[in-house]
């Protein structure tokens, strides 16, 4: 099975915290990451006519042309991690408009609450293989 690719806001401190955390939690090496500013993400988006100029959402691609955003992206990541993380999937029964609303609230305020980097931080050498430029 191909790894899922997570496109995230590279300069976002909150996003980078979660990407580093996911690297540690991904014991089966099923996740790959690419900043929304990367050449790879720009090419991906242009081939699928996806607007990635708004960095307020994470995009998850399962490489079988299924694309997830916002709260559904979060649930796809948890499902991919499996094991204990499947318990979190109980929240996926909450209506999408509510879970996406919570997601948007956090996304809208993440720079104010957590700040941002000038550029996307360099990944840890032990996880460099997980990052796509």
Give a short synopsis of this structure.
With 133 residues, the protein is an alpha+beta fold. The chain has helices spanning 13-25, 39-48, 70-81, 96-114, and strands at residues 4-8, 31-35, 59-61, 67-69.
Describe this structure in words.
The chain contains 4 helices and 4 strands. A 4-stranded mixed sheet has the order 2-1-3-4, covered by helices on one side. It has one domain. It is an alpha+beta fold and 133 residues long. Helix content is 41%, strand content 12%. The relative contact order is 0.23.
Give structural attributes:
single chain; alpha+beta; four-stranded mixed β-sheet; globular
- Overall structural domain count: 1
**Strand count:** 4
Which percent range fits the helix content? 40-55%
Strand content: 5-15%
Low-confidence stretches are none
Biggest sheet overview: 4 strands, mixed
- State the secondary-structure class: alpha+beta
Q: Span between N and C termini?
A: 21 Å
Give the neighbour order of strands across the main sheet.
Answer: 2-1-3-4
Helical element count?
4
């Amino acid at each position: 099975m191909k790894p899922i690719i997570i496109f995230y806001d590279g300069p976002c401190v909150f996003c980078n915290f979660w990407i580093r955390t996911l690297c540690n939690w991904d014991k089966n090496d099923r996740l790959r990451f690419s900043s929304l500013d990367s050449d790879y993400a720009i090419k991906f988006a242009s081939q699928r006519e996806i607007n990635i100029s708004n960095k307020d959402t994470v995009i998850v691609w399962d490489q079988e042309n299924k694309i997830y955003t916002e709260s559904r992206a979060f649930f796809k990541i948890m499902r991919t991690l499996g094991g204990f993380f499947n318990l979190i999937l109980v929240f996926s029964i909450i209506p999408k408009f509510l879970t996406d609303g919570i997601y948007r609230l956090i996304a809208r305020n993440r720079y104010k609450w957590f700040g941002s980097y000038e550029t996307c931080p360099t990944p840890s050498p032990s996880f460099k293989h997980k990052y796509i430029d």
